Amino acid sequence: MVLDRLFGRRPQGKTDWSVMSSIIRAEQRLMARGEISPSRRGGLIFRNDESIPFLRDLKSELDPVLYSGPGATKTAFEIQDDEHGMRWVVMEDGNFEDLVSSIYTVGNAMGANGAADTLLAAVFELYFTGTVDDNSFRSGLRTYWIYRYDRKAFYPFVPTGESTGDRDKPTEVSLASRSRRQGMVIERNMEEWMGLWGIPF
Amino acid sequence: MTSLGMRKFKRDPGLVSRMYFTMFMLGVLYALFAIVLWGLSVPIVFIAVIVGGFALFQYFSSDRMILWASGAKLVTAQEEPELHRSIKRLADRAGMPMPKVAVIDSRTPNAFATGRNPENSLVAVTTGIRERLSERELDAVLAHELAHVRNRDMRVLAIGNFLVTLTSFMMTFLFFGMFMGGGRREGGGNIALVYLATIVVYFVGQLLVLALTRYREFGADHSGAEISGDPGALASALEKISGQMARIPEQDLRKLQTASAFLFIPVALKSGGGGSLFSTHPPVAERIRRLKELERRMSFGMR
């Protein structure tokens, strides 16, 4: 089916798969070195717009996209609202590659159904263990990778608290350089590394 | 300061000679300025009173003026025992008297030193820098500031700034003269020429002062690293405060949705960066590179 091809595991969509999938190999290499341990969680944040039919009942729209046809996945998802009036598709999958692929698929499905402009970012959670540039050690620290849809690149985000502005910049810089070396597409303009405080997963 | 204390840490000879050169050049400008005043037939006593009065005022009140302007609050050893202990330890190692200690209530990470000589000096830090830096990094920054005091950078800076201030006074004065028709007995063309000369003097003076402040930053990095014995910590502090890390925003991505229209211009302006001729500090990357180099040499016991 055309729809399956469009929304399958490796769809030819608007978001560049080669960019988003760059996180898979980079993180697998860092995992192999024990610097990163995977989390099962990721998500996608967007501005809810009731005038777009696809967003009105997103859950029932996404069910066939994710669970039927040859691209069917086992990724679990739920829809949540945050305190900033944004909506999240929170996803869970033990297989990191499947998680990335499912988030990519959801983003593309939304993009193909008139909601491209509502997409802010895709977010992946990972745990980091290692020494940061200022010689301090981090053990199993919760970190996030943010993929901004408008910039088409990743950047690290390590909040140190719930309030806006609290972030662990040394770890972020360290993560970015490690991952860039492994071929991940990193946002070069660090002024664009906007945080997302209070991620609901 | 005792001569014994001075010998402990060699002064950067390049810094000293450049300081004297700049002082000389500033002196030349000073004379030029006096000639300009003379040419305007300002009585010589009056010239001396203006020039001398401003110099003395600036020299003796600079620390109080800076305290007032920065909102820094003097703190006692009882109020801030840790900060006092660190500064005392570093001042002892540098062979300097204990400076006054002040804290500025600001989230912006910053630190500065002031004072006309080591006996009358002050070191101030913001609450922001204390939050962000580790103890080692903060010590390295404090050592850098103490090095400014020991190299007597503030004295030369005060002279430079004084000249610039006075010249801008002069410019305003001449502006009034030109537009209010209150010219001197000589023609208007002369006044314009004098005005042009004043601008040139002002501009060249500024460039000299800026070149000096950039150079003395390297000097203070170097002697500060000798005082703290930890150039790597200063490098990482610099990296945290003003390196690439400082560019990471503290804004939420969700806020961008509404503010994006206004972001365009500041970003475009920021990318201009400003030429190195006009900046007060040398590029951070260059300072970090030199500190890491120094760290390598120090770790091999070389100087």
Helix and strand topology:
The complex is a heterodimer of chains A (201) and B (303).
Chain A: H1 2-7, H2 17-20, H3 22-32, E1 36-46, H4 53-56, H5 58-67, E2 76-81, E3 87-92, H6 96-115, E4 119-131, E5 137-148, E6 153-157, H7 169-181
Antiparallel strand pairs in A: 1-3, 1-4, 2-3, 4-5, 5-6
Chain B: H1 3-8, H2 13-39, H3 44-70, E1 72-74, H4 81-94, E2 100-104, E3 111-114, E4 122-126, H5 127-132, H6 135-150, H7 153-179, H8 188-228, H9 231-242, H10 253-270, H11 284-299
Parallel strand pairs in B: 2-4
Antiparallel strand pairs in B: 1-2, 3-4
Verbal overview:
- The complex is a heterodimer of chains A (201) and B (303).
- Chain A is an alpha+beta fold and 201 residues long.
- Chain A has one domain (2-192).
- Chain A is built from seven helices and six strands; from the N terminus they run αααβααββαβββα.
- Chain A has a six-stranded antiparallel beta sheet with strand order 2-3-1-4-5-6, covered by helices on one side.
- In chain A, α3 (22-32) packs across α7.
- Chain A starts with a helix and ends in a 20-residue tail after the last helix.
- With 303 residues, chain B is mainly α.
Q: What's the short story on this structure?
A:
With 201 residues, chain A is an alpha+beta fold. Helices cover 34% and strands 26% of the residues of chain A. Chain A has a six-stranded antiparallel β-sheet, with helices on one face.
**Greatest interface and its residue counts?**
A-B, 27 and 21 residues
Strand content of chain A: 25-35%
Task: State the helicity of chain B in percent bands.
Answer: 55-70%
Number of strands of chain B: 4
Provide the low-confidence segments of chain A as ranges. 1-13
**Radius of gyration computed on alpha carbons of chain A:** 16 Å
Q: Tally the helices of chain A: what do you get?
A: 7
Measured distance between first and last alpha carbons of chain A: 34 Å
Helix and strand element order of chain B: HHHEHEEEHHHHHHH
Amino- and carboxy-terminal Cα gap of chain B: 24 Å
H and E order of chain A: HHHEHHEEHEEEH
Q: What form of chain A results from the Cα inertia axes?
A: globular
Strand order of the largest sheet of chain A: 2-3-1-4-5-6
Strand order of the largest sheet of chain B: 1-2-4-3
Q: How many domains in all of chain B?
A: 1
